[in-house]
## 1
Amino acid sequence: MPRESVTSLKQENQALKDQLDALFKEVKSLKDKCKNEGTTQVSGDNSSIKAANVESERSLQFLSDEYDDLTAANSDVLVQLKQITRRLQELSNQVERVSNAIDEFENYSYQYNVKIIGLPGSASESALDTSSLCVNLFRQMGAEVTLQDIDIAHRVLTRRESDGPKPVICKFVRRLAKGKVMEVRKQAAEVNPTSIGLSADTELRRVRIFDYLTPKKQKLLFEAKKLKERDHYRFCWAKNSVIYLKKDEGSRAIKITDVDCLQRLAGNLIS
């Protein structure tokens, strides 16, 4: 599935979620209104009934019948609202299943990608040029990969031009090829620039290679790093699209799958 199609599907799904949230709020507002009107009607009828007792038994019966009719009408509305709420919940569950399917597809697709930061290039660099540069870098790092192992490599925009060279997103054809690169990724900063076709004065000491995470995983990693600093964890990292926290050298790594995991960790520390 093309990236544009996934993005479009995510936007449409989010729009459906927003509509569902609005409908849930409207239904709740109607329910509250019906309940409030029922309570008000009871209070008002009781006052009227006391007055009617003074006047006549016939007026009392009339007011009682009117109250029963109003109560029955409100009861019917509440039943219908409950039915609508149930149908909305079913639709909400379907939307959530689509969201999960999109997440699964993105997680699978992103497993083939790495992000390279700090790698200089030229302004007129083509996708083929970038792919070739990546292969040269990987081979000099010690990973035996070829151009046929690369699906595509391209530069992405940075927030500020002062952030340095544009990062490279490199997508592999095989996860085995990506694995070879990730095993020696720490060697990237040690590569001689002339060996990969760059000038001798090119700076490569800041080159870093990471797993390229989905937007959802990037946000989760950001939150995990905040928890790391706040609660004094020593390590926080991502490997094969999975995020981990580790208290110190001797402790076990904690897999972070969602925000709930982080909240449970924070809660355990507080308690």
Note: The longest strand covers residues 150-155.
## 2
Amino acid sequence: MGWLSKRFTFVIIPDAKHSVQQYRVSGLFILLVPSVISLLLLFALVFFLLFSNRALLTNELKAQLTAIETRYEQQLTVKEVHISSLQTNLVQLSEQAHTMENKLVEINELEAQLKQLAGIDMKSPVTLSSLATEQGGEELQLPEGSTEKLIAQTSKQYSSLDLQLDSLIPQLEDTKKAVMNYQQLLKTTPTIWPTDSRKVTSLFGIRKDPFTRRATYHNGLDIGGKTGDPVYAAADGTVTLSQRDRILGINVLIDHGQGIQTRYLHLNKRLVESGDKVAKGQLIGELGSTGRSTGPHLHYEVSVNGKNVNPKPYIKADREEP
């Protein structure tokens, strides 16, 4: 390796116009320069390879991020469509619930009217909101995908209930009309006692006449009492006769419609006149013993289509106090 200490001369001969240039360098310098150049080239190559790999990795990461972002946007779009669909379904369910709430209110009103007509104690009406507040319980976590199923089932149930409510309202209306007709019929049917007394002294049918002592047909019901005791109309109607008769005494005849009439004989006093409208339980006179009578009593008759019938089966209840 002695040549490393030797010195070498490099001659550079330019063109004819310039002088020759000489450079003297040691053998060590000649060795170091290529080595340094080689190292630099090696470093440059390594740096290029590292940079290329990093660039490829960066591009790959960017591609992955782009793909993830695209999938996220797609999922977000699907979720937004899903949420919009759920909101639409919920709005429809809300409208169905509101419709049924209104129908329930209508049904409750009809029910209240029916109860009032029938004399039933009133209770608080049932509504969807009250049912919701009474349910209580803890919140249940629904599995994914079951929300749509639940909404579909609820919507189907609401539709079924809606149809049932639609059919129930006319039925209640018919029932209301039937109850009103029954109430009207009940008002015009002689179903109450015409006196405060319940002492029946002579029944309807064949009996021994108190004057002739012979068997005769008794076309009414005799109710004993005291002179001046109140006598009431057995049903709603119109007074068609209010008179004094030598045999029947002071008497009142009331027409209740449907071919039904009631008559009240041997009164001490009459408090209504022909043409008066009377209500069931209204005071129409005083019990007495006028006409052909053996003592204070009310002779009470019920006739249907002009034929006297037994009043006893008609009497079902006491007079309601006003």
Note: Residues 124-140 have pLDDT under 50 and may be disordered.
## 3
Amino acid sequence: MALKLMVPTIACQGCAETITESIQVMEPDAKVDVDVQGKTVTVEAKASEETIKQAIVAAGHTIEGYQ
């Protein structure tokens, strides 16, 4: 499953690394691409959309349209 999410709280490469690590804790084989300038996270994983969103929120970020 490929998923692309808007994450307006991404500010730097450090944010990208934190998000990537958080997702890969839940699914080590996930392919994560964080576009810092575009403020998007694209994930290719077997995990559900909800699980991916929870990982991003757990990393301290906000997903547009998701609390």
Note: The mean pLDDT is 94.
